[in-house]
Design goal:
The chain is α+β, with helices and mostly antiparallel strands. It has 6 helices and 8 strands.
Length: 182
């Protein structure tokens, strides 16, 4: 049984069998949103990489956007040369992640939630953002359509990790609802 079938059974999500260039996927309904988990093969010339991605289509009411990703060598160099990021006031989190947003107050409000910070911190790698491209790397979405998106190199084969990411999406959606951003 594939990880996506197991995850669908575990979450009462809907398993969708992949075809041609699309992998199997799981769609989970949460309130008025659909959260989709799948794998995506990212191509760049002769090189390709398998990615796990999670997307939830959203409509923004206030244009609040953010991106949170783990510090790495390239990101540290960006900072040296002046790339700005937001510090939220939690030293360990601020040291571990780069946080970008067009609304400092709202990103600090979102990340004030300890459970959201803990779920982000527990992942081996983090790339979570509001994207205006379908499935992160596909075509640009129509105006005013966005996706809450997460991606990581490789396939996630651990149910516990997938459940943590599902919880992260649910809490993020709830927080954005409470802030009247969606």
């Amino acid at each position: 049984m594939t990880i996506w079938k197991k995850f669908a059974e575990h979450t009462t999500g809907t398993f969708k069998e992949g075809h041609s260039s699309h992998s199997d996927s799981v769609e989970i309904e949460y309130k008025n949103w659909k959260i989709v988990f799948d794998n995506y093969r990212l191509w760049s010339g002769k090189y390709s990489a398998e990615m796990t991605r999670i997307v939830a289509p959203i409509t923004l009411k206030d244009n609040f956007k953010f991106e949170i990703y783990k510090e790495g060598f390239i990101r540290k160099i960006e900072k040296i040369f002046g790339a700005e990021d937001i510090e939220i006031g939690y030293d360990d989190f601020d040291k571990m992640f780069t946080i970008k947003s067009n609304n400092e107050f709202k990103i600090k409000t979102l990340l004030r939630n300890k459970e959201i910070r803990d779920l982000i911190s527990s992942q081996k790698d983090v790339n979570i953002q509001i994207s205006d491209q379908k499935g992160i790397w596909e075509q640009k979405l129509p105006e005013n359509e966005f996706e809450l998106s997460y991606f990581i190199d490789g396939e996630i084969l651990d149910l516990n990790t997938l459940n943590q990411l599902l919880q992260l999406f649910k809490l993020t959606i709830d927080a954005m609802l409470e802030m009247k951003s969606i």
